[in-house]
Amino acid sequence: MNSNRISLNQMITDLLQIDDVSWGYYAFTRELLRDRISDNQKREMILRSIQCGEAYADRVIQETGRDTPRGIAEYFQLRVESSNLTMTGKRALFAQYTPPDLIEILSEPIEKYRAVLAGLSQEEAALLPKAEELSDILLGHELFHFLEDRHENEIYTRTEKILLWRIFGFRNYSSISVLGEIAGMAFSKKLNHLPYSPFLLDVLLYFGYNPEGAKSIYQSVIDIGVEGLGEKCLKANH
Amino acid sequence: MVNVIIGIIMILSFFGMIWYCVKGYNLMVGFFVMSVFWVALALIGNAIVPTEAMKDKTVIDVLTNVFQTGPENYGKSILVNVFFGAFFGRVLMDTGIASTLIRKVVELGGDKPRITMTLLCVVTALIFTSMTGIGPVISIAVIVLPILLSLGISAPVALFSFMGSIMAGIFANIVNFKQYQAIFATANPDYASYDYNSYFSFGVIAMVVALVVVLVVANISLKRKKVSHAWAASANTEAVADAPAISWISVLLPVILVVAFNVPIILAFVIAALYALLTCRKLSGGFGEICRNLAKLFADGAVDVAPMVGFLLTLSMFNNAANFAATYFKTLIGGFIPTSALLICLIFAILTPLGFFRGPMNLVGCGAAILAVVVGIASWPVQFLYPLFAVTTIAPQHLDITQSWVAWGFGYTKVNTKDYMKMSIPTGWIVGAILCISVFFLYGGLVH
After folding, report:
1. What crossing angle do the helices spanning B404-413 and B417-443 adopt, rounded to 10°?
2. Cis amide linkage into residue B254, ω under 30° from 0
3. Nearest-5° Cα angle at B95, B91 to B101
4. C or N terminus of chain A, fewer CB within 10 Å?
């Protein structure tokens, strides 16, 4: 248990140094169509998705006159429910939006996180986000998916497409689902005034289920940071 | 009167078996107990009113037939195929051919859940025309199910569509064909000549029909449950290199070799496995290493099917016991079994759900007894009777919660059995009904 404690704090300390673009690359490692997109395209897409998420956060605050995820959900009359859905294999579900108006925040990962926090000393726990904050972060992210559906004809995360194949003049394009995830994180970050990427919750919440699995997620993010993909990306953009 | 009482006790034991299956107890032990129970009842019945099935047989002869000859014949005719099929399944997994096919299909479908789900189901069905056993199913499931879930498809629909497409593939599966054919040969030795090539065209039709029904039901359920957007995390899995395109045909190679070139099944599996290993450059590193690798693949494959083998061997005892029990079933239900092709097809279509929970329409359940009764009623051509029983066995059984890999799927996805059965039972019934009617139109003319 002690080694896990040290590991979690160390992991979070390291991950707080990771920039949003590197987190975007991490998200792309989970994308089903990742092999169809070049590194340059990915770079461009990550940046535009972050901009899109931030812009929609400003836009929705302006439109609704509310600046909290709960307030915005209320404005759009969304049903925000606590759900006891659970882990599937190695996949831990934290929250989900089901059209047209249901957002489910899963209680199990937050409870597990609460238990992890309870096992830490006060100083160690102070470094980590409070369990109560997490549901707003999750809600913020899912709100973005609601907005994606609402603005699907214009929002970048839905209009950006890649060509999968063509045959006899027929072309099959696909949008890229990870762009919605990256933008959703930028949206939630801005809405919740977070100093870190909400992607951090992938490690934090997964830790409650499987510390070793959380370490493997941590390692893949750190590897991306070490490769400097995020930094390179930012330089290329400026 | 004695026959009627024994028949009623046997039918009650059917329900006991259904209860046993639903409770999730071990099927190998369950069928052994059923074999002992039925053969004991048949021996008691024969002691009171001698039966034709036990004429000129001592008690030891009967026991030998059930507990020795049954598993021996099964081992001779089936298990070797099962082992080589499992070896081939291991090759497809270890070379990365199966996972590559799945990834490529996802890249074709993109982020459209319905299209990608359809393509994944088609590939899964094709893969399971050659592969079988819980090991290969789990290996494919841990790739396919997370993809379906990440597309926003709800867990019950994802599980159902995956298991449904395996069921569709099993209709054309060579190993499964041999398994059921052996049960037929036990019921009537004349049926032993029926081969996979004779069945193949129906197997393909059945596979297509089953796949279409599964996809329609999955799409309707998807409409009801809606596609969701989930925030989920998963631990890293090691990236596997793509298998070369030239190797992909290996998935269908055993079927092609058997159907097009009349190659024996075991040789077809061996050739297909060697082709897969060769094209994926897994036959390198010197003779000693190749031998070690082949031995390991065979051993891993054997482990994959080990629980199934235990079950099949006690099932073979039960099949033989069912032959002695048939007299009593005939007394009770023989009068209700029609001898016309149309009527029997209609009855099978209506009673297909009795193939669930290893019930009396299911050859890998209590159906062996019904087969023995049906065979004793009239001289059915095997080309007609085999597809009929294959339908009421495969469609319900491979969607059923008593199927080992379906039970595993519940643990993996945490899907509620009720949510799953709302889709699986109607699907099994619809598939069964369509195909039973098809059997009448395709082969009903052979019945005289």
Report:
1. 150
2. no
3. 105
4. C
CA angle B224, B349, B405 (to 5 degrees): 60
Distance from CA of A238 to the nearest CA of B (A): 31
**A138: closest CA of chain B, how far (Å):** 8
B413 contacts in chain A (CB < 8 Å): 88-89
Rounded Cα distance between B182 and A39, Å, is 56
Chain A environment of B149 (Cβ under 8 Å): 88, 91
User: How far, in Å, CA of A148 to CA of A152, rounded?
Assistant: 5
User: Is B231 in contact with A181 (Cβ distance < 8 A)?
Assistant: yes
Q: How many CB atoms lie within 10 A of CB B442?
A: 16
Per-residue pLDDT reduced to its tens digit, B93-145: 899 999 899 989 999 988 889 999 999 999 999 999 988 888 888 888 988 99
Residues sharing a CB contact under 8 Å with residue B282, sequence separation 6 or more, in sequence order: B94, B95, B276, B293
- List Cβ neighbours of A103 (8 Å cut-off, separation of 6 or more): A73, A78, A79, A80, A81, A95, A96, A97, A139, A142, A143, A146
**Which tens digit of pLDDT belongs to each residue from A187-222?**
999 999 999 999 999 999 999 999 999 999 999 999
DSSP A129: P
Q: Which of B103, B145, B236 sits opposite A89 (nearest CB)?
A: B145
Tokens of B83: 């082992």
Q: Give residue A192's identity as a one-letter amino acid code.
A: N
Residue type, A212: E
How far apart are the C-alpha atoms of B280 and B298, rounded to whole Å? Answer: 18
Q: Which two tokens stand for residue A134?
A: 């997490």
Task: Flag if A205 and B233 touch (Cβ within 8 Å).
Answer: yes
Compute the C-alpha angle A54/A201/A212, nearest 5°. Answer: 150
Query: Alpha-carbon distance B410 to B420, whole Å?
Result: 9
Please state, as a whole number, how many other Cβ atoms lie within 10 Å of the Cβ of residue B120: 27
Domain residues of chain A, as ranges? 2-237
Q: Which DSSP string corresponds to B33-98?
A: HHHHHHHHHHHHHHHHS--GGGTT--HHHHHHIIIIIHHHHHIIIIIHHHHHHHHHHHHHHHTTHH
Q: Which residue, among B154, B180, B171, B159, has the nearest Cα to B206 in the 3D structure?
A: B171
